[in-house]
Amino acid sequence: MQHQFNKLYSKRVIIAIAAVLILSSNSFAQQKKTFIIKANQPAATIQPTMWGVFFEDINLGADGGIYAELIKNRSFEFFKPLMGWRVDQKPFVEGAVTVQNRQGANLPNPRFLRVQLNNAAKGNLSMTNEGFRGMGIKKDLRYDFSVMYRTAGNIKLHVELLNAKNQVIGNSVVDATATGDAWKKLAKSFQSTDTAQKGQCRIWFEGTGTIDLDMISLFPEDTWKKRPGGMRADMIQMLADMKPGFIRFPGGCIVEGFDLSNRYQWKKTIGPIEERQLIMNRWNIEFPHRSAPDYFQTFGLGFFEYFQLCDDIGAEALPILNCGMACQFNSAELVPLDQLDPYIQDALDLIEFANGDVTTTWGKKRAEMGHAAPFNLKFLGVGNENWGPQYIERLKIFQKAIKEKYPNIKIVASSGTGPDGDRFELLNTELRKMNTDLIDEHYYRSPEWFFSSVRRYDNYPRTGSKVFAGEYASHVDKTNGAQRNTWLAAISEAAFMTGLERNADVVSMASYAPLFSHIDGWQWAPDMIWVDNLRSYGSPTYYVQKLFSLNKGSKVVPLTLNNDVVAGQDSLYASSVIDAATNELVIKIVNASNKEQATVLSVEGVKKLVAQGKLTVLQGSSLTVVNSFDQPTQVSPKESTIAIKTKKIDYTAAPYSFSVLRIKLQ
């Protein structure tokens, strides 16, 4: 994620941008524009990874997001050990509930809760968990409760789901029988009786004695692929529907950490859940105006689960690892070069974890987690938004070690925080000298920048390092939260993406950022997909990204207007590709003006076109329109057919629209 974004460009007014888009003479606007498409001249190959997604644990993206756990602070490891929990006692007994710390015995998860009971019954002592901005509870759905415990007595745990009015909408009783000094896992499933947008989970105790509790957990049955302890299905389905070419994970700034102690360490995110060491999410403290003191990473969603998700939806995995540099905007902490070996070994071990045979150390660990077959990792990112000569000198060491052992792994390297300036120029120059496989460019800019940068890659080198447009989003001014995801932002991104597609021999991968945002827990906006505890919807940007991904094609073919690429003439932008798998010509047209635009699509180099094509149009009624929970598809694709009589197709692009035409070739 790009820091201090608001300092990097001056504010612009939407009306002024709209005026620029529609500035043209009325007579020219009404003339038919003839697009020449040379379907028999395939040029750049479009990589299967061209359009992907970037996941970062920001905006409650993981805990409270795609990781379906409903209990917040389930192992009492937050800075405030009882954050998220409310303990109620009648009468109050000092010391009845205490946080214990087993230092040295179980370092990844040292704390647990000790509850001392004396003939406890309903109303005497209870613990209520608030969830992540509440718990989304669905009527008639099964919920799976579990807890690690130990006790010398026999105690009953009454587990209840509550709605916003504190009414019970699901309950069960768990018998905690004597275990002595050993820890035991208890599990019980039960159904809810009603729906709650902001529910809670209460546990009250019955009996006498002492009971220790840890890893208190509650999951809905309807996780992705019904995996116990899995991911939230509706959110993952939205990704699967996009058919992304890759998933970049786990960030983003959380890779760097506020300092090196806070960095992401993949080895601490695999293995048994109770042995994964929680850390503070750096978005906990990043923005004072959007502070989130309860934002931590439990790593129930770890590197194994990320790889598994990529496997599930047919996307390449693109993990990003720390390169020995913490966030340069925050601590700027560095690992001395002579102490970099453990970081490099982590990279080599990750490749073995993903691709190694089950006889290797880390391949065996993968197999023990349930995936004996290799994940076939092809890409590895070294560093996130790092910059300066200190990054280059560390990257060189990483690149040498990785290429010597795994020459086929493609390395993704940072070009800093923005698309221009001295910082970018230094990195871009040095990375190309190193022949780094992919250079990760980031741009969070205004809609005006995206419209004006459609030709950005037209004059880039066609050989050597390729570009990964790893983080980008169009940011409109004078809006906040989900209101930033306007049609203006999305249509400017669509225009820019035609330039990426047209230059597929330069740009091999691209992903919008951020991906997910919880409406009650966001730090950064705009975002592609917005969620609350029960619902999710795609912004206009989501549908732009989805249409490009589903209509990727295999080869770019020339599309010109007056012998020039279509890159803003009269607010029109266009690109075209051949889909070899279906033998179709795919044409993408963005009309960013407020007028209809009459065009002729003249297809050359083919004998004949099939008489009927498929047309998909994404259109906003105005530049400021947004989607919402109440109107989730206000801007969404509309499909129809288009009659084709000759190789010259009359097509009128609607105002403020993005059109995709698929035409069968003969």
TrEMBL record:
Secretion signal, residue range per the UniProt entry: 1-29
Please list the residue ranges annotated as the Alpha-L-arabinofuranosidase C-terminal domain: 470-657
- Enzyme Commission number(s) from the entry: 3.2.1.55
Q: Where are the transmembrane segments?
A: none
- Is Glycoprotein set as a keyword in this record? yes
| SMART domains on file | Alpha-L-AF_C (SM00813)
One GO biological process term is: L-arabinose metabolic process
**Keyword annotations for this protein?**
Glycoprotein, Hydrolase, Signal
The UniProt family comment states: Belongs to the glycosyl hydrolase 51 family.
Q: What is this protein called?
A: non-reducing end alpha-L-arabinofuranosidase
* Organism this protein belongs to: Lacibacter sediminis
